[in-house]
Amino acid sequence: MEPVDLPRTGRVWLHTTVSIAPPGYSGPVPYGLGIVELDGDPMLRVVTRLRGGDLAPGTPVQLDGDEVPGPDGEPSIAWVFHR
Amino acid sequence: MSEVRITGVGLHPFGRFGELTGTAMGVVAVQAALAEAGIGVGDVQAAFCGTAYGGVAAGHRVLASLAGTGIPIYDVEAGCASGGAALQLGAASIASGQHDRVLVFGIEKMPKGIIRSSFFAPWQEAAGLSPAPAFFALRAQRLLADTGLTVDHLAQVVVKNRRHGVANPDAMFQKAVTADEVLGSRMICPPLTLFMLCSPNEGAAAVVLERADVGIRLAGISLRSHLPGSVLGEDSPLSGIDDTTITPPTTLAAGDAYAQAGLGPDDVDVVECQDTDAARELLAWAELGLCPPGGQGALLAGGDTDVGGRIPVNPSGGLLSKGEPLGASALGQVVELVRQLRGDAGGRQVDGARVGLAHVIGRGANACVTVLVV
Predict the structure, then answer these.
(1) Could you tell me if B144 lies within 8 Å of chain A, comparing CB atoms?
(2) How far apart are CA B91 and CA B106, in angstroms?
(3) What residues contact residue A66 under an 8 Å CB cut-off, 6+ apart?
């Protein structure tokens, strides 16, 4: 296996909101979660945090980072897409 | 598999039971199944225990409590399909001639709230990428978008199953709810409200399988997982989100089980299916061949899946009424169907039921379909 660079833009495929912190997660709630179709060929779908509203299917989004506590409690960066 | 029959079933109710251990619940279910079969624990040649959270040698702890060790005891994990996987292995051990009589049981004791699963890496949990209800919600959104079904249909599934659950003394919730109550309950992950999601809980179920001429015939059983090609299938129980061009595991398992039984969906009189959430049940109807994709609304409108309807689904109340103790839930369905086929299901009896189908699906997209015939 070797790392590959993935597109940093895409479109919302599905979007929901998580209102209860799941086990192992100590970041803020509520937060957006969904699936983004990355631009490019072949198209890839990624499960991702989503930030902000107005995220209907097809909405163009771009990559950013959310700071959340990591498994060890230290700050870490989770990927997030937003408009 | 025509010679494999179920000669005894037992259940510990599903719910929450304080300090009572999963082992103790398993003992209750196993003793009941053995008593129905008219045998002792020393009369089975092997045991298969489904559990996802029971820990190392969970089945051994149950049988040790009954002085039933010395035989091979297999602990089987396949997510929500764990009990189905155990049943399939038990049936195969008889069909192959290895054994003549085996015990199959499932036990679980789970905390309230969102299920924690070692399926996800710690970094995925910390990033918030692991909550099962969110994945169920995404799948529900896809179902609604693809079929024209609405949240009102989701609510109708809950109303149906909770109404059925009123007549099930072994269910956690034995109280009917209205569609307004379902839609007005706490929003967990849009479009799914609290009442549209089943509760992880506690319980146990057991069956005795024998090569015999009497009893309920285990006419078909198959465990399948998702086909390659779905980028989502590896991450969560996403079967149904991304399967428009890929045959879902439920359909694969159902095809196997129908073929083994020499039957088809039109022959089925009563169904117990995975209603982890209301949308999951509607997906299952189409995947099992009970209706074409998008035909769920017509079944609901006609009351077809109610007890008293053409093809009752989840007369036990389903997981939405019973809760879901992972390792026990599949065998709980089988216990229900055996009682239905015997005519012993009391106030939730499906009149004249002769063919029953049980269906579970969960983590790893493990799906198990079982066909029982009286």
Answers:
(1) no
(2) 15
(3) A27, A31, A49, A51, A77, A78, A79, A80
Digit-coded pLDDT (tens) for B145-181: 989 999 999 999 999 999 999 999 999 999 999 999 9
Judge: B138–A78 Cβ closer than 8 Å, yes or no.
no
pTM: 0.94
Helix (H) or strand (E) holding B14: strand B4-15
pLDDT (average), residues B209-226: 94
* CATH classification for the domain delimited by B4-111+196-373, as one of 3.40.47.10, 1.10.10.10, 3.40.50.2300, 3.50.50.60: 3.40.47.10
Question: Total structural domains in chain A?
Answer: 1
Alpha carbon B51 to its chain's center: 13
| pLDDT bracket for residue B32 (50, 70, 90) | very high
Residues of A in contact with B189 (CB under 8 A): 16-19, 33
CB pairs under 8 A between A and B: 97
Cβ atoms of A68 and A80 within 8 Å: the answer is no
Residue A21 within a domain: no
* Segments making up each domain of chain B, as ranges: 4-111+196-373
The yes-or-no verdict on residue B191 having pLDDT over 60 is: yes
Domain, as residue range, for A46: 42-83
Using pLDDT thresholds of 50, 70 and 90, give the confidence band for residue B244.
Answer: low
Which residues, 6 or more positions from B56, have their beta carbon under 8 angstroms from its beta carbon? B75
Q: Shortest CA distance to B126 belongs to which of A68, A74, A18, A28?
A: A68
pLDDT average, residue stretch B96-124: 91
pLDDT at B365: 80
Look up tokens 């595991």; give the residue: B249
Query: ipTM score of the complex?
Result: 0.94
